[in-house]
């Protein structure tokens, strides 16, 4: 998973998979879901992110529950 904030265009991308994007839908104004050919979500884009996300420069990451080794 990758999270990229592009300040020049004010877009926050959350990339969940390296699969190629086959289709994109703007589910809600300013929120775009990217899908692969099988219909799985592979990414999320948030437009005008600095107005919609509390802190575009900070990321908190945690794992909860049981995690088995990969």
Folded structure, characterized:
The protein has a 5-stranded antiparallel sheet with strand order 1-2-5-4-3. The longest helix is centred in the C-terminal third of the chain and has 4 residues, at 49-52. It is built from 1 helix and 5 strands. The protein is 6% helix and 40% strand. With 70 residues, it is mainly beta. Strand 1 and strand 2 form a beta hairpin. The mean pLDDT is 91.
Beta-strand percentage range: 35-45%
Q: Count of helical segments?
A: 1
What are the secondary-structure elements, in order, as H or E? EEEEEH
Largest sheet: spatial strand order: 1-2-5-4-3
Q: Characterize the biggest β-sheet.
A: 5 strands, antiparallel
Using only C-alpha atoms, the radius of gyration works out to 14 Å
The total beta strand count reads 5
Report helical residue fraction: under 10%
Q: Label the structural class.
A: mainly beta
Low-confidence stretches: none
Rounded mean pLDDT is 91
Q: Looking at the structure, what is the overall shape?
A: globular
Q: What is the first-to-last residue Cα distance?
A: 15 Å
